[in-house]
């Protein structure tokens, strides 16, 4: 009896915990008599036939490493001519019986479409931002929150020593999960997120109230995609673009900071955390979650539950349809924001 | 209308996140028009009348600190004459309308009995070991797992450089939650816990299998209360006592290490993590959880839900009867152990 | 016999280790029978008479905290009318026999001038950037390098997963110490500093050479004040200003990144570390150095060595004239840059 | 012209920063037209002919890793018959023109003897404990101090919450460098080292003085080889051995703790940090130092300065005779201990 061969790929933005998933898939597959082929650079590797055998030795010592040993890309086979056909040809040529796609919105949408074309596929959800449906949390989010929180802790001491306001921009173009969690954990005096458009006046009130109590320093946590009404002329701000057409670094945060400084007279500074939030060693919690997902993904292949993905519900790892992940953006739980707002100002 | 006065105490072993709970209680109480009195050193402070007013200023800047600003003790008022009466006298004398007890098995049992005597009381569950019923997780556990995992990461490099076996003992006298999570996150080659008595032969098999594949080093994670059958004469080992009658430091781990070294001839060393696991700054996740509990506890007081405690169920904070926490020890989820065992040997 | 009263102030930008210095001054002063008065917000507090008694209790538990319990400012008494006179009046009115000024270029220059006016003063050098003369290193620098290195470690995994170039901007407007040390420790593929004007072509060569060897990712570390000749039209870039007249966030790094992307076609991203580098808990090494400085400063007061400051020479703490600190900018040791350049490309 | 081939080995206990040295040797050797051969497991690999080619690719990505990619052992070729001859035969057979030995007392003594036998050899000093002569500091020490300090920070919060004394044992069998630095950085209330035999009464006095000021908790830092006179019967304690003949875990610390608890009645606990101090990622400072040593070692080979080793003097990397390292144990600088003692009690 020949082994079933499983192709594994990671797509989209990198995320701490990807290597934990890959390692777990390989180790569990060994137990379930599956052979694992690692695809390079997401879906691109399936079109371009870039891959390597993944053995136990190959995945030894990678559990704690950030990034992905397979590389990643945002390549979409449906965006090129013959893309899906080329993917299927690769799978046939290498005698691949199943695909495990680890990724976010984009990757899992492609997986769903591939499944509709008849490919035997299962998924593992991945999102730093925690905005995927179908699952309570995914790996990477806890790491991003931890890194952002540690930065906020550091900024607190400098804000206090200088009696300044610091506006810190964290990841989250469409949702405020990281901002809310890191803001809660870091003791933010205001948190700006996409889900709750805020007026700059409210933020200024928090800053002023603190000043009246003798604390001139404040920490404002701001998601990249925060919606803030700056008043004067009343438009919500967006990130803006620089002279080369790139999105402006810290666009929202800088607009907010400028408005606060102008109105309160308190020195206000901006820090943009950027890519450090998605790099480096995953937290213990993300390694455990990634590992549980990886074991489940191999089990889903072994039991041929095509078109499903591993998901976390409460404390359990369950299988849900791939479509659940991508149906709609999972917005910030309003109860979390409400808890955070107890501490504003 | 005079404010209701709430007494807050922390009892039992310290736990990262206690200050997050206290701060949240104070901030939420302010919104709910409750006044907060901090009791020193757990129940002892209610008997001895040691307390202080807790204001917003007093709890400013404590969110990220380990320990508890209130101090703690293992004092039990039911163990001394007139204890419960003295507690109630203190409450009356200071016009205290409600008590929030933050603690584990011991503290919450006392709370339950006090409630039976008519005291208006609510609880917040606290356990490093994650062995309390009624709640999925509590604050402090994630921090302990993180610290243990970081230590295991460090031990890996020294074990590999020297081709040694290292047995690392983590907290867990009665349950294996920390051992299983930290072992999973740290990539342990075997995990020994109280819930799954193991024979030393199995551990040795894992070590030998790795040696055959060219890896002479292994990491064995061992809970303090792990049950291991050492074979020869067949008794399960316990911690033992030293010449002064104290429990032996690393008793179980040392017995395991000695057996491995003797049988395999591979140099084997012991590390006992001890108190570092429960000290210091809580993880972001524990700060969020502690804060959510604290807000809920103040809400339970405001809505007079006496005899209940804040608990985590899935992603929600709910109220459960105090008795749920202490009914029975919450043992390690066998599914977690099964995932971990995929990676043994 | 009445105690001599010593006034302690911290001026300029905050710096991890300031609290270690303050604590050491207080503890050593107690042994030398000196009384310590803490001045709020640098020289401003001496003009405005804002101060507090510093006792052993007051400085207990601050050793590991970032910032400064005394607050800081960039206030210069020589810049206002009667400034120096008001300082001296405050000193007399409160019977202050000596001043310990902890600060950088600005603070120590003022100290030197005050000394020239007859004030009994000693100094402690402080600079994140390591650009003060008279001393080999000061506290804060090691912490800044550590934080930057940890960030570079994280960026490495994301750069590798995505096969990108990441340009990371670290502190250093006038000198490249942090860039060189963090670049060395983080394994940077090129380091841009003020002391060694570079042509963008060299950087691009390093990136290209790596690509030829199969590594499309590179990490470029760039000091805020790096001198880079972008070619086309041949001007050295500076930070630039945004629409509100503030210095542009990551101005140099963005220009460099844009040029690399345009010329190599490799996706290039920017991260600006900013204020996180100067906040938070000091490293063990900075705590030791700050403590040694503080003990020395109290000893300098006790032995009336006015006009001197504590300094590190090799492994020894010595006294040097205040003027040594401010005579000229201490530029990056070229041997360090040369070692770093072994690893370029 | 054929390249000169250099053999590199790491011997003795592992130490964070070893990989930084190896990487730097390889990169600098490439520039100096030297070829590098990595020897496995210290001197043993030269006898057993276990080695591998070290290329730029092989040492890519190892800068931040703990341990040593070459493995290490305590093997001494002079302790076996024909050992030195076999070493020399290996060198000849593989056409090795020079050896770089990275190690401590043992490894460098062997290097010195090999040099006396005519082998072209240079050294790099390595010691966690900082007890080697000829150099101010070596890599690994800063990392060990950092890890110990972080642990002491954590223990502080638990000691304070429970009003306990905690005795923490750190590395240092013969010298007190780690104890003194970590004790200073961690704010220890007493530090016990081999170089300054102490009476238990002094320690108890510190604990009692703190209690009188209202602080029942204390942190005592204790080197493994601390000399403490326990009074009653007046013997200095040593580590002792357990029932299997191994040195007792935390022997000195436990004796000290028992004596304190017995005499003061304050609950006293022990933590033994053990192997975590020498494992894991090196600090930025140790990576810089290791890298500077590695570059220097390759330069010493290129300039044929046999019988010397790289050493740190002040801020410079210099060459000193190999014999300088091993002439005598470098004891703790008494000025450091004196600074630390300002904070006792």
From TrEMBL, chains A, B, C, D:
Pfam families: PFK. It catalyses: beta-D-fructose 6-phosphate + ATP = beta-D-fructose 1,6-bisphosphate + ADP + H(+). The active site is at 129 (proton acceptor). One of its GO terms (cellular component) is 6-phosphofructokinase complex. It is an enzyme of class 2 (transferase). Its cofactor is Mg(2+). The keyword Kinase applies. Belongs to the phosphofructokinase type A (PFKA) family. Mixed-substrate PFK group III subfamily. Homodimer or homotetramer. This is ATP-dependent 6-phosphofructokinase. The record marks 106 as: Important for substrate specificity. One of its GO terms (biological process) is fructose 1,6-bisphosphate metabolic process. The lineage of its organism: Bacteria, Pseudomonadati, Myxococcota, Myxococcia, Myxococcales. It is found in: Cytoplasm. Its EC number is 2.7.1.11. Keywords: ATP-binding, Cytoplasm, Glycolysis, Kinase, Magnesium, Metal-binding, Nucleotide-binding, Transferase.
């Amino acid at each position: 009896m020949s082994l079933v061969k499983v192709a594994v790929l990671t797509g989209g933005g990198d995320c701490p915990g990807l290597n934990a998933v890959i390692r777990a898939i390989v180790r569990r597959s060994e137990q379930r008599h599956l052979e694992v082929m690692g695809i390079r650079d997401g879906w691109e590797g399936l079109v371009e036939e870039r891959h390597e055998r993944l053995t136990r030795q190959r995945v030894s010592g990678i559990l704690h490493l950030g990034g992905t040993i397979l590389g990643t890309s945002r390549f979409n086979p449906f965006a090129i001519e013959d893309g899906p056909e080329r993917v299927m040809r690769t799978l046939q040529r290498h005698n691949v019986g199943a695909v495990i796609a680890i990724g976010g919105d984009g990757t899992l949408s492609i997986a769903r479409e591939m499944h509709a074309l008849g490919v035997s596929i299962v998924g593992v959800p991945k999102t730093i931002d925690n905005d995927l449906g179908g699952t309570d949390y995914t790996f990477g989010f806890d790491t991003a929150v931890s890194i952002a929180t540690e930065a906020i802790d550091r900024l607190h001491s400098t804000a206090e020593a200088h009696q300044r306001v610091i506006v810190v921009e964290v990841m989250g173009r469409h949702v405020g999960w990281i901002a809310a969690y890191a803001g809660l954990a870091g003791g933010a005096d205001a948190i700006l997120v996409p889900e709750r458009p805020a007026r700059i006046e409210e933020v200024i009130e928090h800053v002023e109230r603190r000043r009246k109590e003798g604390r001139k320093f404040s920490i404002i946590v701001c998601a990249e995609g925060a919606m803030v009404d700056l008043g004067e002329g009343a438009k919500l701000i967006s990130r803006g673009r620089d002279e080369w057409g790139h999105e402006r670094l810290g666009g929202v945060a800088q607009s907010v900071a400028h408005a606060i400084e102008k109105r309160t007279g308190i020195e206000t500074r901006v820090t943009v955390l950027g890519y450090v939030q998605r790099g480096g060693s995953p937290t213990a919690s993300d390694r455990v979650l990634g590992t549980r997902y990886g074991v489940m993904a191999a089990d889903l292949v072994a039991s041929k539950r095509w078109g499903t993905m591993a998901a976390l519900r409460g404390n359990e790892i369950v299988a849900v349809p791939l479509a659940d992940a991508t149906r709609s953006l999972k917005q910030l739980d309003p109860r979390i924001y409400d808890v955070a707002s107890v501490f504003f100002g």
